[in-house]
Amino acid sequence: MSRFLSRHVRGLEPYVPGEQPLDRQYIKLNTNECPYPPAPGIVRLLAEHTGQEFALYPDPEAKELRGAIARRYGLAAEKVFVGNGSDEVLAFLCMAFFDGGDPIYFPDPSYGFYEVYANLFGLKARPIPLAKDFSIKEEDYLELDGHILLANPNAPTGLALSRCKIEGILKGNPHHLVVVDEAYVDFAGEDVTSLPLLSDYDNLMIVGTFSKSRSLAGLRLGYAFSRPEHIAALERIKYSFHPYNVNRFTQQAGVIAVEDDAYMGHVLEKIIATRDRTSLRLRELGCRVLPSSTNFLFMAHPSLTGRELYQKLREKGILVRCFEHPRTLDFVRVSIGTDEEIKAFLRAVEETL
Ligand SMILES: Cc1ncc(COP(=O)(O)O)c(C=O)c1O
Q: Which atom of ligand 1 is nearest to the CA of 90?
């Protein structure tokens, strides 16, 4: 540990990303990436690129990209912010809206970064335990004395809250910001996204990512939708921190990805079909599988802990994710891969059980 490390940083517990081991070839079902390539136009863009323009800084306003995203989602461009992955967008919004010592409410368990950021930015983390069935209960989120971060669908459970429940939470907290992290929303039904609520609630901010349904985890592109004044607040942070946060290639690829909805639809169809078939088969094998609205399954088997199942699968060349959280020790989270990858995963589960 550096002898110059600040006392604040010494006390932090950083986020632990899913492992990316190099010791052998694994089937990677541990970080909820998309198993399919991005829109074909992006591969063409890469092939045709001379690279010359990479000598220049990117457009700090990301005008074309924000315009394309705004058109796709039926919003004005002033309601769109883009960042270097939604992790960066979440960090910027913590800096823009939350003062040190503010209580921040989020479900527990949920996306691990919420607690990490609460600690990094000196906020008071107020985790709200999920219900016994792992669902988020709207009534636990009413009239709170702090801002709220909600992943919908939630991770690692994969469960979604309907839009009308989110609306209840927005109504129940008119004086606080409700951030809905929709990283997995494209894999959920139509009634999950909070997008239609944006015009009615000035305390709503939606965060999204191109890492999952648009296969661009490696290019780092996330976004936020909210009222122009809230987006301007994020811009203030960006220009105080990293004005060129979205690189040139990502800006170009993002436009292609967001304009090719037909391709995304095709990818979603495949992943959802694989997910539902896999879930059925795992249940036949005696596993508990939560109903998933995402590109992953949260599953357990009564004969093994999550860590044991993780370890057995790892020995067979398949990476899934297990957790240290006391509520989820029995579970592993399995990202939906290609049919071939999932076939190998199911074979490994059958052998293990
Ligand atoms: C709920 C949730 N939010 C945000 C992210 C971050 O996504 P990215 O930074 O790749 O956009 C993830 C990544 O797994 C996630 O699960």
A: 4
CB of 294 shorter than 6 A to ligand 1: no
Please, where in the chain does CATH 3.40.640.10 lie?
40-260
Using CA atoms, how far residue 252 sits from 37, 49, 53, 68, 261, in Å, is 16, 11, 12, 10, 16
Atom of ligand 1 nearest to the CA of 155: 1
14-33 per-residue burial string, b: 16 or more CB within 10 A, e: under 16? eeeeeeeeeeeebbbbbbbb
Q: What residue owns the CA closest to ligand 1's atom 7? A: 86
CATH superfamily label, 7-37+262-352? Aspartate Aminotransferase, domain 1 (3.90.1150.10)
Q: Closest ligand 1 atom to the C-alpha of 209? A: 11
pLDDT tens across 183-212, in order? 999 999 899 999 999 999 999 999 999 999
Q: Which residues of the chain carry a pLDDT beneath 70? A: 23-24
Q: What is the pLDDT of residue 317?
A: 94
pLDDT given for residue 267 in this prediction: 98
Phi-psi region of 192 (alpha: psi -120 to 50; beta: other; left: phi over 0): alpha
Q: Which two tokens stand for residue 198?
A: 């944006």
CATH number of the domain located at residue range(s) 40-260 in this protein: 3.40.640.10
What is the reported pLDDT for 21?
75
- Is-contact 94 100, C-beta < 8 A? no
User: Is 110 touching ligand 1 by the criterion CB < 6 Å?
Assistant: no
- Measure 181 CA to ligand 1 centroid, in angstroms: 8
> 44-76: per-residue pLDDT in tens?
999 988 889 999 999 999 999 999 999 999 999
pTM of this prediction exceeds 0.85? yes
CATH 3.90.1150.10 intervals, the chain: 7-37+262-352
